[in-house]
């Protein structure tokens, strides 16, 4: 009982955010930083939420309200302080067919079911799977993310008035040089204000936020989907809900790990998992499209603006609602160039430039580099971070298995024992399906004397394939009229071999 309590206390200390919300509220400098960071994020959320609504095939207000509700909800229930959760492109792509083929009621029912599934997955420990994602996949994920963020800005750079380019350049220059002068006010916020002021003062005609879609004028209302509670309804929405739940969790947990690395702090991934589910259910209840952690906006909040607490996440949601409902006319005139400059800066800051330096590539094992490149290629090709991560983990696993398969060695000695010749084999390494498949080929069945000893002291049996291989070796020697003795097995290996031996090698 004492051990459990101690572990719980340690976990609480480990996940305790620094600075805490209480500290930030008592420190004007920290509170100002959190509030301004939230404002920058809110401004950056608007055009993306509208774009994702269009991808999902729903009204722009659906994405905007979803972003507002999810940001505020996750500020209380999430496990990663300062991370931004809102409507995302990955989720929009997954559930777009539901809105198109079955209508809004089924669409919202899918969001609600996805939230419920995320809570269930959290209870069953889905967050623990994060430990199986190798560093090379994580680097590939980050680099692919940076590329996707930049690619998302390309449409805003094509077929636009020439004045867009100098405005973006001004925004980038402000964000590069302002942090060297002062970090009191987030550089992205100053950039947005200066570029917007220039457009208004000089009456420059460039695309603005208002061109993306009409901003709502009222607060969100409760939305109870009118769908029959039947098995048929479940068969329609369940596949999309499960896909949404898995994609959302994967993207959110990967983002949480990225923020952990950026801030050198720990976060509670299990809490973040069920928190995402709660946020999606809250979003669905108010007619929102659901979502997950937003990597671009999170990087704006944490890296560009220096936010560290839940206050910034909460205020991002509050400011978003105020901006779209009360100040919609002002927000509508913000030039897209200002927000594109912010996202380009985020893209450059997110990319792991160290990973592609010639000196790094020269030192890094080729398998690690291959995994990173494959992850990047798949994500960029599919525009789906979850698919890229799954493929990356698969490739990393195959590479690992191939590498480990060559670590098993078999040494043979022929010696005299009480005047009788005996073949003595020493097996060294981890024995599992990849390494034990060619184990049977490393013994001299015909040439060996009548007595054979196989020493397993320096090896370990992990699966039934190895037991089958050992059975096959024994059988082959018996067919040659020779006796085999297996010695040196550790306790686990002995128990495992005893349980499975006999019959498994019959097919060899």
Could you characterize the architecture of this molecule?
- The strands form 2 sheets. Strands 3, 4, 5, 6 and 7 form a 5-stranded mixed β-sheet that branches. This protein has a two-stranded antiparallel ribbon with strand order 1-2.
- It starts with a helix and ends in an 8-residue tail after the last helix.
- Helix 3 runs parallel beside helix 5 and helix 5 packs antiparallel against helix 10 (231-263).
- 64% of the residues lie in helices and 7% in strands.
- The protein is α/β, with parallel strands linked by helices and 508 residues long.
- The model is unreliable at 1-7 (pLDDT under 50).
List keywords for this structure.
64% helix, 7 strands, alpha/beta, 5-stranded mixed sheet, 508 residues, 7% strand
Which helices and strands occur, and which strands form pairs?
Blueprint: H1 2-15, H2 21-26, H3 28-56, H4 60-77, E1 85-86, H5 89-102, H6 104-123, H7 135-153, H8 164-181, H9 187-201, H10 231-263, H11 269-285, E2 292-293, H12 295-304, H13 310-326, H14 328-332, H15 336-350, H16 358-363, H17 366-382, H18 385-405, E3 409-417, E4 420-431, H19 433-436, E5 451-455, E6 459-461, H20 464-479, E7 483-487, H21 491-500
Parallel strand pairs: 4-5, 4-6, 5-7
Antiparallel strand pairs: 1-2, 3-4
Helix pairs in contact: 3-4, 3-5, 3-12, 3-13, 4-11, 4-13, 5-6, 5-10, 6-10, 6-11, 7-15, 7-17, 7-18, 8-9, 8-15, 9-15, 10-11, 10-12, 10-18, 12-15, 17-18
